[in-house]
Each structure stands twice: as structure tokens, then as C-alpha cells.
Design goal:
Helices cover 46% and strands 1% of the residues. The chain has helices at residues 5-12, 16-26, 31-38, 45-51, 86-96, 106-113, 130-143, 148-156, 178-195, 201-213, 243-257, 266-275, 305-320, and strands at 282-283, 303-304. The chain has a two-stranded antiparallel sheet with strand order 1-2. The longest helix is centred in the middle third of the chain and has 18 residues, at 178-195. The relative contact order is 0.11.
């Protein structure tokens, strides 16, 4: 769809982390325009604010995945998981398009100082949770850390059905999870894009097939909808699966691979299209509970610029091919 001048101006009146993507993906701005906006992510707005919170040892909030003191009862008594520690901040900065050079020697400082809450393992080696490992793989590739051993972990821990599940390492499941599989795929794609290493492509394509066989929405066993979470679009999504975030991944993966949209995405496309409001915007659902450094999107029920960016570019991509 071509967006209206009102919608265009509304989307452009945003943080650089979002605005450069609007310029590139929705407005087809020249490369020098969106790249100039992207270059300001580390010096203005959300990106600069997160960088200002970095500890001297390279971490945020004194911890790898949870803040320092979380397991000692020192964390404020709030619902949900805190989203302020190192892994979550680096994931945001990377996905917002911050220049890795702005983080200086962060990779080396984390190698020296950061350990996982699980088994005190070294940061760039990852741990046993596939979602955590996917964030770490992509972030390590972005910052230039040696994550080659972690890259090899993914095909070794891929389940027989082609996906991944965070519960599998604890022996609690032999079936893949929509949430875990999408997180793994996003990490694998980012790793390939950042490094040019295609050694994980086969594992990625197997994982994509797991979701495509289920048309992003349904149980393989019964054909019934997998859960209401697929239609609850929220930003930041953290680890949460939805049809919108899955489609946003498949758009990026298909463009990277040079293909065309898989027809099995059609039902998910219909779901996303149905959620678009008459003014071309998508509404925020319930944000994930937990402490943050600051808000980056609107409260529940309000029009979300982040979701509107993703929804619009997904439908543009699909419609252009049909």
C-alpha cells in the first residue's frame, strides 16, 4: 500500500531507531537519506539513552540476562521479568540499527567480565536456552566477538521436527515451540547477514519449514489455532511470538535469500491485514510486564508506530508479489 501523507508524517515523527526503517522500507528513500538517519541512532534518542546506562565493565544493570542482585531479592518487587540487563539492551541496540563501532570494546569487556546466571558460563559461549543463545549469536556477530562455537550449537540442538524449544535442554519437551523457533531463526538470519557465513543456512531453512508447515498459526497435530498469542501484536515483543513478528522475519529472510513469499503465509497475512485500523495503523496489545530503562512504545490500545512500520512493510512486500 502507498501510505497517506498523514500516516507518513506520523511515522516520520519518531525516534531515529524507527525513522530510518520507515525511510528505507516504506518510503524507498535514497540510501544516503536513511543511512544518515541510522547513523544518529547511537547519538540521539533511545539508542543514546541506552548507551548512557552502560556499566564500566561493559554490562548493563550489572548482569548478563538478569540485573545484579535479582536472585538475591534485591530487585524491586514488580511483576514480570526486568528487561534492563545486558542481553536485552544489546538486542535492542542491534535491532534498532546502532553502529557497532559506537560500543567500542564492549565485546572484549563482556568476555572479561560477564557470566551467565546459568552455571556461571562465559558470555560469548552462550548457555542452554535457545532464545538466549540466539540473541547472543546475533549480538556477537554484530560486535565482532568470536561466536563460532555458539553457531555450531544450533544445528546440534535442533529437534527432529525442525524447530527448537527452550524446554528441550531440561528434558521437558521433544517438540518445538513457535516462540523458541522464531527466536532461533531471527538469530541465525542476523548471524548470516552480519558475517556472510552460510554454514547455518540449512538449519535455518529447516526451522523455517517447521513454521511454514503450520502456516505460522496452527498445530500440526490437529490443525487448530496454536494460541491467542499469534494475534496479540506487541512492541517490544522480547521473546514473544506473533503472526506479525513471524511474517516480519519471513520477509527479511526471503529478501535475503532472493526468493518470493511462500504461499503458506497467506493465512497469517490475512490476520495481520484484518488487524489494520481504518487509518492504516495497528494497535498495541498488552505490553510485557517488567522493569525497563524507559518506554519505547505506547500503552495498550493506542496506535503503535513500531507495529505500523512492521505491518505496513509486511503487507507491501506480500502485495507487491501478488
Amino acid at each position: 500500500m502507498s501510505i497517506s501523507p498523514t500516516l507518513r508524517d506520523w511515522l516520520l515523527d519518531s525516534d531515529p531507531a524507527l525513522r530510518w526503517q520507515v525511510e528505507r522500507d516504506l518510503l524507498a528513500a535514497p540510501d544516503d537519506v536513511w543511512r544518515a538517519t541510522r547513523a544518529t541512532v547511537a547519538t540521539e534518542g533511545f539508542g543514546a539513552a541506552l548507551l548512557a546506562e552502560q556499566d564500566a565493565d561493559g554490562q548493563w544493570a550489572g548482569g548478563s540476562f538478569f540485573p545484579a542482585g535479582f536472585f538475591d531479592g534485591d530487585e524491586p518487587n514488580q511483576p514480570g521479568q526486568p528487561w534492563i540487563a545486558t542481553t536485552w539492551v544489546l538486542r535492542d541496540l542491534r535491532e534498532w540499527g546502532a553502529d557497532a563501532a559506537a560500543l567500542g570494546d564492549t565485546a572484549a569487556r563482556l568476555e572479561a567480565n560477564s557470566r551467565w546466571d546459568y552455571d556461571d558460563l562465559p558470555y560469548w559461549g552462550g548457555e542452554i536456552d535457545v532464545c538466549i543463545n540466539s540473541y547472543t549469536l546475533a549480538t556477537g556477530a554484530w560486535l565482532g566477538a568470536d561466536v563460532s562455537a555458539l553457531a555450531a550449537w544450533f544445528p546440534d540442538h535442533q529437534l527432529a521436527d525442525g524447530g527448537w524449544n527452550c524446554e528441550a535442554e531440561e528434558g521437558n519437551s521433544t517438540r518445538s515451540s513457535f516462540h523458541s523457533t522464531l527466536n532461533a531463526l531471527r538469530g541465525l538470519l542476523a548471524y548470516e547477514q552480519l558475517t556472510g557465513d552460510t554454514s547455518l543456512s540449512e538449519a535455518r531453512h529447516r526451522g523455517e519449514e517447521y513454521l511454514l508447515e503450520r502456516r505460522l498459526l496452527y498445530r500440526a497435530s490437529t490443525g487448530e489455532p496454536v494460541g491467542d498469542f499469534v494475534r496479540r501484536f506487541v512492541y517490544p515483543n522480547r521473546h514473544r511470538y506473533s503472526a506479525l513478528f513471524a511474517l516480519d522475519f519471513f520477509r527479511a529472510a526471503t529478501l535475503h535469500d532472493g526468493g518470493v513469499p511462500d504461499p503458506r503465509l497467506a493465512d497469517a497475512i490475512d490476520l495481520v491485514r484484518a488487524a489494520r485500523q481504518s487509518d492504516g495503523r495497528w494497535l498495541q496489545t498488552t505490553p510485557l510486564a517488567g522493569r525497563t530503562w524507559f518506554d519505547v512504545d505506547v500503552p495498550e490500545g493506542e496506535s503503535s508506530k513500531w507495529l505500523t512500520l512492521m505491518g505496513t512493510r509486511v503487507l507491501d512486500w506480500w502485495d507487491a508479489a501478488h
